[in-house]
Amino acid sequence: MLCPSGFLGLKASKKNAQEMDEDTKKLWKKFQQFSKLPEHDRRAATRLINSLSRAKAS
Known about the structure:
Blueprint: H1 4-7, H2 14-19, H3 22-35, H4 39-57
């Protein structure tokens, strides 16, 4: 299980890192990059992701 600080990228969990497949590791790395963006950019990126996921679901 991932703790809150691990979820936010503040503390790495060796056990979780070893259990993740390569795709999951890549996604976490992107999430960490995303979390470093300014608030305005995070909101814009979130809107884009939401729009894309809604379009895919339709």
